[in-house]
Hints:
This protein is of the alpha/beta class. Helix content is 33%, strand content 29%.
Amino acid sequence: MLKLGVFGVGHLGKFHLNNWKNIEGVDIVGFYDPSDKNAAEVEEKYGLKRFTQAEDLIRLVDAADIVAPTTFHHELCKLALRNGKHVFVEKPMADTMEQAKEILSLVKESKVKFQVGHVERFNPAFLALQGHQLNPMFIEVHRLAQFNPRGTEVSVILDLMIHDIDIILHLVKSDVKNIYANGVAVMTDTPDIANVRIEFNNGCVANLTSSRISMKKMRKIRLFQKDAYIGIDFLEKKTEIIKLKGEGDDALFHFDIETPKGTKTLAIDNPESKDINAIEAELKAFRDAIVNDTRPPVNEIDGYMAMEVAHEILKKIVSNFPSSQPVI
């Protein structure tokens, strides 16, 4: 039985608790949260023991689930890693690149499993593309959210856009060549809306727009490659593929179009999205990595690379608006 401690039981922490309760082979020893309000709610609803000192809980567990605000990630990760405990930490893995580098070093020294909570990797719409050849050369992303004070201790880049940065780095698998970025702070002291262009060495270009001050929600990625267009709707959990029809293609719908090179047949496919709870899936993956001694699907290197690109974007925004100094 894997002994687990949850560090931070606010809005997202409670989601984690709900899902851990459904995962076999895990014993939740207790939780740590400095908020008396959060603690009282969790003690009443879940009957779990509250620890007022993070060190006391760390000593009793095999693994730590860190769901505290980003500003506490580094401190709690260090505590867990220096005690040889496995770590799941929400994105971003740390507040600064210096902190992220120290975490990388500690993970290497401690030889434990470390997973970062980039939950969109487990979204049914994204998982529906497993088995499909993805080689995008142009990517367009829109991630829009209504304003919510929760999570605004960091910029929209580290709050929202980092989800898509991780997905793009996972898909493109090429070094970043250039980054162009603009951002505006409207409701907070850090950028609340940003537009970014990332150019990769392999020729791929990604345009990303993220906003946390929108009237409607949107979480879409569009991939364009030589033989296909792929649309991923993370919010609606739907996927669409439009491509040139090939031999044995069993797409449900296809049609002919006239081109300068003759008639081409396009096939439209909507890969089935399984009914998957993404948070439960990522937590199960963390458990499995520990039990089976395998590499977590979103490891410390993935988390570091997404952070590295995110902070380069923030530097570009600062340089474009020298009078405005967003907190990095």
